[in-house]
Amino acid sequence: MASSREVVLGRIRAALSDRPTAPEVPRDYDQTRALGDVIGLFAERAADYRALVRRVRWDDLPAEIESSLRARGATRLVAPADLPAVWRVPGVVWSLDAPAYPLPVRTLDRSDGVLTACAVAIAETGTIVLDAGEAQGRRVVTLVPDYHLCVVREDQVVGTVPEALASLEPTRPLTFISGPSATSDIELDRVEGVHGPRHLEVLIAG
C-alpha cells in the first residue's frame, strides 16, 4: 500500500507529465575578478564584519594561538580530535570532539571557545567556509561555544564565491561564516550570538 507521500508525489508527477523539461540555465557569469591582494582584501572584509583578524607567520602559529587564548583568558577549549597537536596550547584544558565520541552540548556550552581550521576563505565577502573536513569538526562544535578561533592558511584564500564553490564538495555539510553570529529585529536592533559565536577571531597564517 502506497504511503501518503508516494501518493502526493505521484499526483504531482502526473500533473507535470505534459510539461516541457526545465530549460538549461546558462552559467556564463564571471567566475573570477581582478581583486589584487586577495589575502589583504579578505582580512579587511572579515574585519568589517567585526571579526578580529591577524596575519601571522606559519612558523609562529602555535605561539600566536597561545597569545590569542591568553588575551581572552580562555583556559577550556573545544577542538576537533584531528586538530594538529602543535596547535594545542599547553596549560589549556582541551576537550576533543569526534564523530565516534561526540562531546555533549553541555560541554560545548561551558567551554571558553573552539579552535578549528577551515576549508576555504572568500576575499570578496570576508567569508570563512567550513565543510567538516580536516581539523574542522562537526558543525555544532562551532555553533555552540561563544568564541571561535579559526586558522586560515594563506593558500586557502580565493577571490570570489564561484571560486570557493568550485573547490568545495556540495554534498558535505557546508557552513558559511561572515563575522560573529548576528541578527536584527524589525527595528534593526543588532543582537549577536543568537545563531552561533558572538566572537570570531581569525589567524591568517602564511
TrEMBL record:
<dbReference type="InterPro" id="IPR024185">
    <property type="entry name" value="FTHF_cligase-like_sf"/>
</dbReference>
<feature type="domain" description="LUD">
    <location>
        <begin position="108"/>
        <end position="204"/>
    </location>
</feature>
<dbReference type="Pfam" id="PF02589">
    <property type="entry name" value="LUD_dom"/>
</dbReference>
<protein>
    <submittedName>
        <fullName>Lactate utilization protein C</fullName>
    </submittedName>
</protein>
<dbReference type="InterPro" id="IPR037171">
    <property type="entry name" value="NagB/RpiA_transferase-like"/>
</dbReference>
<dbReference type="InterPro" id="IPR003741">
    <property type="entry name" value="LUD_dom"/>
</dbReference>
